[in-house]
Specification:
alpha/beta; six-stranded mixed sheet; 620 residues; single chain; four-stranded antiparallel sheet
Amino acid sequence: MWQKIKLILKSVRQYKKYALITPLFMIGEALLECLMPFTMSMLIDSVSDAVNVNNQAHLGYSLLTKFSDITKAIPYTNANLGINWNVSILALILTLVAMAALSLICGIMGGKYAAKASVGMGTNLRSDLYKKIQSFSFSNIDKFSSSSLVTRLTTDVNQVQMSFQMCIRIVVRAPLMMIFSAVMAFLVGGIMALIFVVLVPVVAVGLLIIGKKAMKIFMRVFKRYDKLNESVQENVSGIRVVKSYVREDFEKEKFNNASNSMTTDFVKAEKIIAMNNPLINTTVHASNILVIGLGSYIIWRSSADANFWTHLTVGQMSSLLTYGIQILMNVMMISMILVMLVMSLECVRRIGEVLEEEPTIVNPENPLMVVDNGDIEFKNVNFKYKETAEKNALSNINLKIKSGQFVGILGSTGSGKTSLVNLISRLYDVSEGEVLVGDHNVKEYDLKTLRDNVSVVLQKNVLFSGTIESNLKWGNINATQEQMTRAAEISQCLDNILAKPGGFQAPVEQGGANFSGGQKQRLCIARAILKEPKIMILDDSTSAVDTRTDKLIRKGLKEDLPHMTKIVIAQRISSIEDADQIIIMDNGHIDAIGTHDELLKSNKIYQEVYHTQNRVGGSK
């Protein structure tokens, strides 16, 4: 855990000076807060003695009207305290005002710098987490669910940020206030301060019991955030499906269940925490009764009997009351801090897991920066998504694809088609064997170089908010208008683009919501073409277009990009029947490789798919 805390504290960076200055102001504030009751007791005793000297027997007499008489009584010697009162009452008042002002300034400056340090640390921590996530491979992302990563990036960071602010501010102030107040209580009240020695452990034990019970519930709540975020994420991303199946009520119920479980836990925890105030208030009232009762008796006895075993003044008793409240309130504050910090440890652990996670796919020390050609070869490849998985997703894959070939991949759902092509661009690494691109192992290439030369249009087509042009330039930021037009022509989406108001400057909503499925697919293909890669992989990327458009896209790829290796994963035989070779996948292994005519004669899987599609009405 300490390793994770150190890792998170690295995010303080340029805000370290604010984090170091804040405790200094807190120390100053604590000292001033503890000296003020002592100074107040001196003022009370000075006024009391001055009034006695001037024989002001009538207690309701105006102090202001007799201020000149009171000041005449100074200097005055308080033999019991052994202090020579050469300081005027006015000086004591001004001292109190100055202390209060300085305490206020220390508090304000401490709060200001603590806010800067904590917010800055939170900003850096979110940035560090985001950058770390961007470096993850698909297998790293699979280890953490996307909803959990969102929670760690938002809720957990906010909790750590708040705790950091408490650490540099309240964690410094509260213990110091308690210690300083206890020392001053013994200096001022002597044996009377033993009252707090008895009461403080009682309060501390009670607060720890309360905090321990509440802490267990709070720890459970943070785990529920993941389920809540997962419910929201699934609902928002799949809102079209939800509405088309009229499942709004079901989704509302699912969200309410996740939300209500959190609410129940929070209410239960807050009810337990609410016991703090009654406990503290009861103890404060008990301490006040004891101090006032015992203190009044001592004042009465010491005034009547000069030889009484101890002495106490009204001012000292007043300061004891204040110190008692300060001690007990800061004990409560420390207990609350401990609960918050322990709660934050769970967030620290979750954030630390992400920061400590090492990307499974990294650049080699001396990477290759050039991909010579589009040759692809699989040598004895086995692959599983997790090391602990019992079964391989791909088994014993041996395959050669020559540069410039058009290759089709066909197979049932879950047969390993996508897993196979993901290894080419090194979105995942093989468990055994090796994958070669351009006669070199993909692990030898610089990741950016490899992925710039292997364009992948995934099953899920994603467009980003902006314009058509900004989306196309994801493929090549420096693409010219001519290049974009050519890519749009090959992918058969130029007419759709020009038909929209603004053409290439037409707006694209988040996720491409203002485009149909077929339009998004063709724009994604155009975006991939703009990269001018050595290899292009279309993972079922023409499923939403009609057969005629599909045929025109394949024709454009073959005629306009003859040197590019083209791999098409398809469900329709018509999409791949003119391929140079067709790979049949079945249950994670290659069942057969051949041309359309060869497979139609020899492979049962291909025959079944072909006859089924033609019988249902499929056409070439």
